[in-house]
Amino acid sequence: MKSPIFFHIDVNSAFLSWTALARLEAGDITDLRQIPSIVGGDRSTRHGVVLAKSIPAKGYGITTGEPVATALRKCPNLTIVPPDHTLYRQQSTRLMEYLSGICPNIEQVSIDECYMDYSPVSANYSSPEAAATLIKDTIFDIFKFTVNIGISDRKVLAKMASDFRKPNLVHTLYSREIQEKLWPLPVSKLFLCGKSSRETLRKLGISTIGDLAQTDPRILRAHLKLHGTTLWNYANGLDDSCVQPVPAREKSIGNSTTLAEDVTTREAAARILLSLSESVAGRLRTSGQKAGLICTEIKYHTFRCVSHQAPSDPPTASTDQIYRLSCTLFDELWDGTPIRLMGVRAGHLAPADEPVQLGLFDYKAPVSEKQQKLDAALDKIRGKYGKDAVKRGSLFDSPKE
What we know:
The structure is a single chain. By secondary structure, this protein is of the alpha+beta class. It contains 13 helices and twelve strands. The termini are far apart.
């Protein structure tokens, strides 16, 4: 039996990258990622801490978590911008939805990082490194921010691999590589080795991860209790945990897309709604759920956001039914203004096998058996060969006259 392969995917300077992209989209000509800048705190009061920093700011010795006042002493011309946690949640949701479309075995561990179990999709790629590189590059093409991806046969090693040199890189740290790649590093680079633990290890004469790995674990346990055993295990690459997708039912499933060009016609909007509906319906079927509510979302080129929702009666996971309802909502919603972003979201989720209460005059099933088989066949093809393996003809642009 092959060992599992894990990816750890981590957005580079997430808060700063997401803030920079939002400001550029709003017309700012300065890219915060290219100048000494931070997210967090307040320049006028010099209060707060650094939540995220640009690479140029890092060059001044500025670190995440340090007081803003200290950062300003290091770089008086530092640009400081406030955090926008609503924006960060939106960007995080979009990224995780995209990654879930590649492989459903995703474990999100923070707003900007997750683990992915590569094994279920390994047949689709020539190697883990090739898959990770493609994912990394595609994320940049779609979302315009960068990620690091660590690869290993142990989750904790994948996490540490993603923290190697940044940004926009893929690194491996397999169990067989720890002596070469991990042990020479200072203990400060070991996952969960905080300041207090580092000070204790320093007093014991332990400065590198290799020193720690070769220390009698009983000594570590005597000084650091159970945490000492954890650090010893991690230094030796010992971790038998698996990717744990969130077992609880999602409250909603959605997908949205920021458009390369503003949409100005109903025909173009309908094609986008069909693509989004296919994505949402596919994820509903994969998760074994159906939706009792459909919502269509629009962001105009003026950045004004509007949405409209309606119940789906009966609840559905059918692409066609979600598409028809999303189009109806769109027609009720759109005022003709050019559109920058479109989204479709499914809510009021219920198990797919939950009985449906038919009305007195209903005489047929909500979705035909033939349509259900077609949806299942398309899901199977896309799951094996990728989401673009099969496309509806209506999603292709009409030939130019």
